[in-house]
Amino acid sequence: MTPFLRLSSALRGGSIRYCHRSVWASHGTERRVGIDLGGRKIEISTGKLARFADGCSVVQLGETSVMVTTVSKTKPSPSSFLPLVVDYRQKAAAAGRIPTNYLRREMGTTDFEILTSRLIDRSIRPLFPDGYFYETQVLCNILAVDGVHDPDVLAINGASAALALSDIPWNGPVGAVRVGLVDGEFVINPTRKEMSSSTLNLVVAGAPSSQVVMMEASAENVLQQDFCHAVKLGLKHTQQIIQAVQQLAREQKVVKRTPPKLFNASQEMVDYVRQLASDEIYSVFTDLSHDKISRDEAIKKIRLVSEEKIKERFPEAEPFEVMEAFNAVSKHIFRNLTLSEYRRCDGRDLTSLRDISCAVDVFKPLHGSALFQRGQTQVLCSVTFDSLESSVKPDLITTALCGVKDKNFMLHYEFPPYATNEVGKMGGLNRRELGHGALAEKALRPVVPKDFPFTIRVTSEVLESNGSSSMASACGGSLALMDAGVPISSPVAGVAIGLITKPNPEKASDIQDYRLLTDILGIEDYNGDMDFKMAGTNKGITALQADVKIPGLPLKIVMEAIQQATVAKKEILGIMNKTISKPRVSRKEHGPLVENVRVPISRRARFVGPGGYNLRRLQAQTGVTISQVDEETFSVFAPTPSAMNEAQEFIAEVCKDDQEQQLEFGAVYTATIIEIRDIGVMVKLYPNMSAVLLHNSQLDHKRIKHPTALGLEVGQQLQVKYFGRDPTDGRMRLSRKVLLSPAATLVKTLSEKNSITMGTVDDQSSTLS
After folding, report:
1. Which of these, 447, 581, 535, lies nearest to 227 by C-alpha position?
2. Which CATH number is 267-341 given?
3. Beta partners for 675?
4. Are the beta carbons of 161 and 69 closer than 8 angstroms?
5. How confident is the model at residue 423 (pLDDT cuts 50, 70, 90)?
6. Residues 151, 402: Cα–Cα separation, whole Å
C-alpha cells in the first residue's frame, strides 16, 4: 500500500474530504470521500471490493458499513417496464451473531428487509431513462453494524453511489438522510438512542438542484410547520452527499454506456395513433357516466381496434412499440384534460373528495369492525385483542441489526384479486401488501396507548380498489379501533394527493406547469407523476409516503402537497366523526378481559403447582393465558368473560383460604406423616391443609440418608415447630430437630454404641468359653 493523498474541498453547508489511495497496482485504486453532516461523518469508498460488478460502493457511518453492488444486463428483457430488483439483506455476522434456525444460516426474508428494499427502490427507480428495460439488480450487503447507527439510509446512499459510479444509464445521483426530532431539536442521521426519544422518523431522498425524489415518515402528531421544516432541512443535507458522489464519479471518469435500444415508440407511430383514436379516447375520459370497470373496458375496445390498424400501417413494428404508441397517446390526452381544462375523468374539481360513507360495528361477534367506502375504494377493517404474549417478537438478528423491538400493535393489509375484478393467486404475502400495511400501521400507531393491556391486531381487507386503499385502511382502522373501545388519543384519517406535470420543452428536468389532485383515482395514479400519501389527526401528521415517478420534485410542490393533504384530511375526519367521534367507553360484552391476580409468596408454589402443572391445567381447561408480572402479581388474559369466570373459580379453589392463617410463628404443632420420601417426609398440620415437606436435615440433629433410619412410618405423628414461609420460594418452614435436645441425642447415640460393643464382647466371651 502506497501512502494516500488527501485532498480537501469545502462545499456549501458542510465539508467534503476526498481521499485517493492506491490499493493494488495491478487491480486498480480505492477512492474515498468523507461528508460531514451535522457533526457525523459519512464515508463513501469504491474501487476495492467487488470489482466485477458494474458498480460497487461501501458507505460507512460510525462503525456501521454497507456494501452495495449493481449489475445491469446489456441485452433487453421481454418486458414493458424496468425490471429493477433491489435486495437488502441482513447478515447475522455483521452483528456478531449466529442465526438461531436449525441450519444456522440466513433463511427467507424478513419484513424489515422487504420494507427497506422498497425504500431503496423508490429512491432510485425514477432516475432511470424512459424506455430502459434492461434487467438491473441492486444488492445491499451489510458488512458491519455497531448498534448505534442504522444501515438502511446508508444503503440508499450506497445504491446511489454504485449506480453513479457504474456505466449503467442513470440520471443520478441521489442523497438520503434521516431526520429526527428530539426534545424540540432536529437531528440529522440520529443514533438509535436518539431515535428512541424522537417524535419524528423522516427519510428524505433528494436529487440534484434540491429536488425531492422520495419521502417516508412516521411521526407522533408532528405539527405541519415542523414537518415542513424537517423536509427542508433534510433536503439541504442530501445535496452534500450528492456533490460528494459526483466528485467521486468525476475522479473515476465514469462514462455511461449507450443502450442498444430504448423501448419507446417512434414519433411517427404516435402521431398515427393520435390521428386515429384521440377523439374516441377523449370522449371516454370525458364521459362522466363511466366508473372504473366500464372506463377500462371502453379504453380496451379502442386499444384493440387501434392496434390492429397500427399493425397494418407498420407491419414491422414490434408488439411493445404498438402498445407504447397507444399508451403514449392515451396518457397525453388524460393528462392534458387536467392540465388544460382543469377537469377530471369522474367530474370532480382538482381538490374535491369522492363520496365517503362509514359504518362501525358491522359484525357483532368481532371485537371491533368498520367499513370505509370512498368512491369505489372499499375497505373492511376488524380489530382483534389477544394477550400481551401474542405481541410481535422479532428474531435476535433483526433486533441487533435494526433495533426493532416487541410491539403489541400491528396492522395487516390484504389485497385479494377480486378487488380489481381480476383472477389471481391467493395466499402468501407480496411486497406491495406488506408496504401498504406498514404505512397504515405507521399512521395509527402514534394514537394507540403504549400501555394498553392487550395485543391489538387490525386487519384491513380491500374489497374494492380504485385508488388509495392504504389511506382508506388508515381511516377504516381508526374507526374500528374506536368501535372496539381502544382509547386512541385522536381519530386518524389519510388521503392521497396526485400530480400532473408539464415539463419544460427546453429542459426536461424542469417543470413548466403542474396540477395537484386531491384523493386520486387508480387511473390518476397510473397516468400521473406522484402518489403522495399523508395521514394524521386534526392536530398533526402521523405518517407520510411520497412515491415520485419523475426524476425529482421542486420543494415548492412538496409543500403545496402537504398543505392540500392537510385540508383534505380535516374534511375526511369531519365525515368520519359523524359516524363515531371517540372510542366507546367500554369494550364489547363478549370481548376479552385481562385482570391482575395477586398471589402471596406463601401461596405461589400452590398456585403454580409442581413444574407449573396447575397453570398448564388452568390454561388448557379455560383457554386463558397467564403470565407473571412481578414477584406477587400474575396477569390473566381470558378471550371471553365466561372463560375469565372459569379461571377465577379455578384460582379461588387452588388458593382458597385454609387454616394456615391460624398458624403462629414459633409455635409447636402435631404433624401427621402422609408420605415417606428419600429427602424427607410429607406431613400435614391439619387435614384440610396442603402437605408440607419436612426435610431430612430438619428431622434430627444427626445426618440421615433416609427417614426410615429414624423408624418413621406413614400415619405416625411428630411434634414440629413452625417458622413461617421462606421469603424466596414461599415454602412453609417446619423443623423437628429444634425440639430435640442435642445432648439427649448424643447420649442416646453413645448408649446405642456401648450396647453394640458390649454385645460384641459377650459374643466373644461365649466363643472363648
Report:
1. 535
2. 1.10.10.400
3. 682
4. no
5. confident
6. 7
Domain borders along the chain are: 5-252, 267-341, 356-577, 593-656, 660-742
Q: What is the pTM of this model?
A: 0.81
Q: Which of 201, 85, 79 is nearest to 131 (CA)?
A: 79
CATH class belonging to 5-252: alpha beta
Angular region, 209: left φ>0, alpha ψ -120 to 50, beta rest: left
- Tens of pLDDT along 36-77? 987 889 999 998 998 999 999 999 999 999 999 999 998 877
Q: Which three cell numbers stand for residue 304?
A: 384493440
Report the CATH number of the 593-656 domain: 3.30.1370.10
Q: Examine the pLDDT at 217 and tell me if it is beyond 90.
A: yes
Alpha helices in 549-687 (DSSP H): 555-577, 601-608, 613-622, 641-654
Mean pLDDT of the chain: 85
Whether the predicted pLDDT of 552 surpasses 80: yes
Q: How confident is the model at residue 747 (pLDDT cuts 50, 70, 90)?
A: very low
Answer whether CATH 2.40.50.140 is correct for domain 660-742. Answer: yes
Phi, psi (rounded to 5 degrees) for 127:
-95, 5
Please choose, from the candidates 534, 427, 531, 412, the residue with its C-alpha nearest in 3D space to the C-alpha of residue 461.
412
Q: Which CATH class is domain 356-577?
A: alpha beta
Distance (Å, whole) CA 214 – CA 371: 31
Say yes or no to pLDDT of 352 above 70. yes
